TrEMBL record:
PANTHER family: ASPARTYL PROTEASES, PROTEIN ASPARTIC PROTEASE IN GUARD CELL 2. Residues 143-478 form the Peptidase A1 domain. Gene3D superfamilies: Acid Proteases. The active site is at D161, D362. This is Peptidase A1 domain-containing protein. One of its GO terms (molecular function) is DNA binding. Belongs to the peptidase A1 family. It comes from Cucumis sativus.
Amino acid sequence: MFFKQLFSSLLFLLVVIVGAAAAARLSSSTKFQYLNVKATKLDFNDGQILHALNFSDGHRQVSGYKSDNNTFKLNLLHRDKLSHVHGHRRGFNDRMKRDAIRVATLVRRLSHGAPAAVKDSRYKVANFATDVISGMEAGSGEYFVRIGVGSPPRNQYMVIDSGSDIVWVQCKPCSRCYQQSDPVFDPADSSSFAGVSCGSDVCDRLENTGCNAGRCRYEVSYGDGSYTKGTLALETLTVGQVMIRDVAIGCGHTNQGMFIGAAGLLGLGGGSMSFIGQLGGQTGGAFSYCLVSRGTGSTGALEFGRGALPVGATWISLIRNPRAPSFYYIGLAGIGVGGVRVSVPEETFQLTEYGTNGVVMDTGTAVTRFPTAAYVAFRDSFTAQTSNLPRAPGVSIFDTCYDLNGFESVRVPTVSFYFSDGPVLTLPARNFLIPVDGGGTFCLAFAPSPSGLSIIGNIQQEGIQISFDGANGFVGFGPNIC
């Protein structure tokens, strides 16, 4: 019995020592990690993230960020948890084609610029949060939130988009509406619904407006051919247990596109008409989200208010582009493979004085894009360090793929983002090598950009808590995982 206890104690001590050694390696420059092939599903999940999120070389925390006990937090869920939308799943190639169109649209928008944002501090709310789920099963790469619309509130699933500034839902009567999971919102059933007049300040803030019988009309088109048209209104939205009155929303009577399953869109961009912009000074542009890995039972949240800013996050500067105030730019200095920085000039990722190039974080884009020269250097460095893995033909937008059929796990080089402020973010393996079929084909989830613009997509953001402090101009990563 004594020897059995002694053996157990020694075994426990060995586990502790090995675990400590692993943690020490992750706190320094990590060169390799393992991708669990068998546990990684087509929906990009391997379930192994606990020790894969690593910051080094200049880790710093911004003082003054404290948790707020009044912050209301709800679970974040995947869209694939919703059985009633499973029938709308589209193929991988369709999603990648739509992603390419999304990128082309962002490039066009950012090359032409946008009007400056108008400050609006009329809305005063407490900290609050709502569920977020993946839209993959509905044929899109976006994520969804559950929000109550009207009085009494009718719960609706809405796409979240950090690159959009309009909040809208499909409304009765529908001239043309796509299929959604919940009943279409009927303004006649809401006591808080109020149409906006053509001459109002709210109507003047819209780019594409018109007038019909004295009511302000709006029209928004998206790069994939989706669009929404209708009237602008002030309505009450319920997020969690918090009611927010007089939010300007689009009441869409004519809608078409890739929003199947969702009732509309919740714009989280930096402009005055976005949900964040309308909340005004009370939240200070502060919100936090964690895009939970697809295909898992994990949970996360979308939170609003300064209480959502976590203690222990690594913060970098948020860069403002006056020509495109809706987008969240960050300072990326370089990229690394296997713990070695790829030879790419730092100016490749810098925002120019004309408002072009730069690096945008976008929840609506799935795959991260780099300018072609930077992508080629990055890809070549990755393939040079994975020459032992069997290659596979390219798939869709991906030109670097591997045949991992029959493998339990594979040793792969790390992929890191070097930020201008100093920190280095090393991604989990499942955030850059993703399955693209059921036959064991995995591809490097990056692609070249058709311009000088770089985009950090949602695949690379998955599982990492990301926070925006608009008032002080910071974006934070971690410390939580989901």
